[in-house]
Amino acid sequence: MKVLANDGISKSGIEALEKGGFEVITAKVAQEQIANYVNENNVSVVLVRSATKVRKDIIDACPGLKIIGRGGVGMDNIDVDYAKSKGIHVINTPASSSESVAELVFAHLFSGVRFLHDSNRNMPLEGDTNFDGLKKAYANGVELRGKTLGIVGIGRIGQATAKMALGLGMKVITADSFIPQVDVKVSFFDGQSITTTLVSQSLESVFKEADFITLHVPAQKGYIIGEKEIATMKDGVGIVNCARGGVIDEVALVKALDSGKVLFAGIDVFENEPTPEMAILMNSKISLTPHIGAATGEAQDRIGTELASQIISLIG
């Protein structure tokens, strides 16, 4: 039985699938050619990440498809309900990339409060001629310790982010309309741990109280953060989005960055992927990454082996 891993899969995932009797194809097939390729090669399983889309047209055109798998959490690039209505299994790996995404959130937070994203642009250009000027420009850093982190969405990734924030000595507040409260266990290297309970509060209060805000929500029909919401936030707030493009109004964000209302933003996902707006890409107050939240070797190993395990258990 053949598996097309169109957006790639880890070596450990390939080995696990091959051990289970599957043939794994890692050729990158163009979006418009996927249906033909699946049919011509008798592919039973299609695995994607965020790049490839599996919509109704592909599902209808591929009667031999048995499983669609998403290496990661969000499945907004798959017509999940329609696939299930056709008897196709749809799987994902919600737990595999939580730590990786949470660490990227803090990479953006640390970058933002110490201007690393901008100093890394300007030091190569001016470091030898304007060292003192740059030193002065980046001299007003802010510590994360003791500040309040507002987490919107306290699922697996939100909880992983909360653990890191707590370990750093931050106050954590959260808003989640589906999870009223959650126990978060912070584990240490020597086996000791501390557990604290986070109780969800209103989105409005999180926006009002937080020094920094990070979003961990699925794709939405509208913006979670727009001009009105930004107006209620603290002056000098930092905003990070490593969740989904389209949950922040990018025009309102740039306006707030330019006015100084928002100190910095960390953006891993964009409204117009894979062609983000130049106003976002060129803004010196935004720390940028190209949708790499789950892109660590460790996460990809976990994703690959978890997908393999689910596939083998379903049709192995």
Automatic annotation (TrEMBL):
Q: Has the keyword NAD been applied to this entry?
A: yes
Tree of life domain: Bacteria
* Keyword RNA-binding attributed: no
Which residues are in the D-isomer specific 2-hydroxyacid dehydrogenase catalytic domain? 6-314
Recorded family membership: Belongs to the D-isomer specific 2-hydroxyacid dehydrogenase family.
Q: Which UniProt keywords apply?
A: NAD, Oxidoreductase
* Protein's UniProt name: D-2-hydroxyacid dehydrogenase
Q: What is the lineage of its organism?
A: Bacteria, Pseudomonadati, Bacteroidota, Flavobacteriia, Flavobacteriales
- In its UniProt entry, the species of origin is given as Flavobacterium frigidarium
D-isomer specific 2-hydroxyacid dehydrogenase NAD-binding domain location? 107-293
Per its UniProt record, what InterPro entries does this chain match? D-iso_2-hydroxyacid_DH_PdxB, D-isomer_2_OHA_DH_cat_dom, D-isomer_DH_NAD-bd, NAD(P)-bd_dom_sf
Q: Which PANTHER family does the entry link to?
A: D-ISOMER SPECIFIC 2-HYDROXYACID DEHYDROGENASE CATALYTIC DOMAIN-CONTAINING PROTEIN-RELATED (PTHR43761:SF1), D-ISOMER SPECIFIC 2-HYDROXYACID DEHYDROGENASE FAMILY PROTEIN (AFU_ORTHOLOGUE AFUA_1G13630) (PTHR43761)
